[in-house]
């Protein structure tokens, strides 16, 4: 039986685009005895964009999983969530990584890395409203902004 994991993520960028940024992620797993296991991740970068950080939060969390899992990803990024729930990603791939307006898809390398990280898992994406009191989203925001601010000071 596959483990069920919840992943909460957020990305932040100061001076978007090309300013310092960071991501935050929380992984949660409740074992058979009912014990909650939780892991927090964050990392900052000197020059990035908000969308890149939103993607990297999900990627980093999925890359932590060592066995196939059923994963629910919760993000306040419509960019990330809609790419899967509205099948933008399938259309981009079918069109040679071009958007509906025939422009190259931004962050293609990160999208490809995300798809690879998803491969062993069953992943469902859920949008949550940002800055609306969702405890894990608020914590991810703190992790992301703290990482962004630290990267900006380096």
Structural summary, described in words:
This protein is an alpha/beta fold. It has a single domain, classed as Ribonuclease H-like superfamily/Ribonuclease H (Nucleotidyltransferase, domain 5), CATH 3.30.420.10. The chain is built from five helices and five strands; from the N terminus they run E-E-E-H-E-H-H-H-E-H. The chain has a five-stranded mixed β-sheet with strand order 3-2-1-4-5. Strand 2 (19-30) and strand 3 (36-48) form a beta hairpin. Helix 1 runs parallel beside helix 4. The longest helix is centred in the last third of the chain and has 19 residues, at 135-153. The radius of gyration is 15 Å and the shape is globular. The N and C termini lie far apart (45 Å). The model has no long low-confidence stretch (mean pLDDT 95).
What is shown here, in short?
The protein has 154 residues and is α/β, with parallel strands linked by helices.
Give the secondary structure arrangement, pairings included.
Blueprint (H helix, E strand, L loop, with lengths): L2 E11 L5 E12 L5 E13 L1 H15 L4 E7 L2 H8 L2 H7 L13 H11 L3 E6 L7 H19 L1
Parallel strand pairs: 1-4, 4-5
Antiparallel strand pairs: 1-2, 2-3
